[in-house]
């Protein structure tokens, strides 16, 4: 487990989370990732993920009650800055307007407000999202259903490489920031899925079948951002 400079400041619980990953050629994805960050590959292949989930039990440290529940949809890829691998977010859509607005003001992350819904019917989960107020609407709609068997990804496998990431990287002015996250290893399940609409990805990327992994619940702890480097604009 990676050592953290500061104690955690925010606790969240993630529920009914689905990892959907597509392989993308490194040279195709590289222009969309800041040059200050290394775009990581697994056996020479870059990856991009779309991740729908519900977040609940949101509370800052020392606050005993939850600040609410909302739905989120993240689009990310995998990067490294020196020693620690992490994720880089292209976008984070949230169904809570105050969360999206506040995150844009307080955090150097690309949050957007979206009309979103997550419905569970038996074992099946329906997730829909329509981004608002950004000039062009983006829509995502998928249904998924986890299989019963649970497992932890084995080290050095592609599944482990994609899921076991414990920080995010972003840029602010000429600073490289790391946002550390602490949680236990992912307990995963395979899942059936039907992606009815996905306007967050080019059609050429979605021509290949994605890798899909489900996790029922995860408690996560966010630590303060750290300045880990600087670059020239």
Can you tell me about this structure?
The structure is a single chain. The protein has 3 helices and 13 strands. It has 233 residues and is mostly beta strands. It has one domain: Acetoacetate decarboxylase-like. The longest helix has 10 residues, at 97-106.
Mean pLDDT: 93
The CATH topology corresponds to: Acetoacetate decarboxylase-like
Approximate helicity band:
under 10%
Give the amount of beta strand, in percent.
over 45%
CATH class: Mainly Beta
Rg to the nearest angstrom? 17 Å
Instruction: Pick out the low-confidence regions.
Output: none
Q: What is the CATH-assigned architecture?
A: Beta Barrel
CATH superfamily: Acetoacetate decarboxylase-like
How many β-strand stretches?
13
Morphology: globular
Number of helices: 3
Distance between the termini: 33 Å
The oligomeric status of these chains comes to: single chain
* Largest beta-sheet details: 13 strands, mixed
* SSE succession: EHEEEEHEEEHEEEEE
Structural class: mainly beta
Tally the structural domains: 1
Task: Summarize the SSE layout with pairings.
Elements: E1 10-24, H1 26-29, E2 38-39, E3 46-60, E4 70-81, E5 84-94, H2 97-106, E6 111-121, E7 124-131, E8 139-146, H3 158-163, E9 167-172, E10 175-182, E11 191-198, E12 211-222, E13 226-230
Parallel strand pairs: 5-6
Antiparallel strand pairs: 1-3, 1-12, 2-4, 3-4, 4-5, 6-7, 7-8, 8-11, 9-10, 10-12, 10-13
Features:
single chain, about 230 residues, mainly beta, Acetoacetate decarboxylase-like, 13-stranded mixed sheet, 3 helices, about 50% strand, globular
């Amino acid at each position: 487990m990676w050592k953290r400079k500061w104690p955690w400041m925010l606790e969240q619980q993630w529920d009914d989370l689905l990892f959907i990953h597509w392989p993308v050629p490194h040279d195709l994805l590289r222009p969309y990732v800041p040059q200050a960050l290394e775009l990581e590959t697994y056996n020479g292949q870059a990856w991009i993920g779309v991740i729908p989930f519900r977040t609940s039990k949101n509370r800052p440290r020392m606050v005993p009650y939850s600040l609410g529940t909302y739905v989120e949809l993240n689009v990310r890829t995998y990067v490294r800055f020196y020693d620690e691998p992490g994720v880089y977010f292209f976008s984070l859509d949230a169904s809570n307007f105050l969360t999206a607005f506040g995150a844009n003001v307080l955090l150097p992350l690309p949050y957007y407000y979206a009309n979103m819904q997550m419905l569970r019917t038996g074992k099946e989960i329906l997730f829909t999202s329509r981004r608002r107020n950004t000039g062009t609407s983006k829509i995502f709609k998928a249904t998924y259903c986890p299989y019963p068997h649970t497992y932890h990804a084995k080290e050095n496998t592609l599944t482990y490489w994609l899921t076991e990431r414990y920080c995010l990287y972003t840029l602010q002015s000429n600073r490289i920031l790391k946002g550390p996250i602490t949680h236990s290893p992912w307990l995963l399940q395979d899942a059936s899925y039907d992606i009815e609409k996905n306007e967050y990805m080019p059609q050429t990327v979605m021509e290949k079948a994605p890798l899909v992994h489900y996790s029922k619940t995860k408690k996560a702890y966010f630590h303060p951002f750290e300045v880990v480097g600087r670059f020239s604009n």
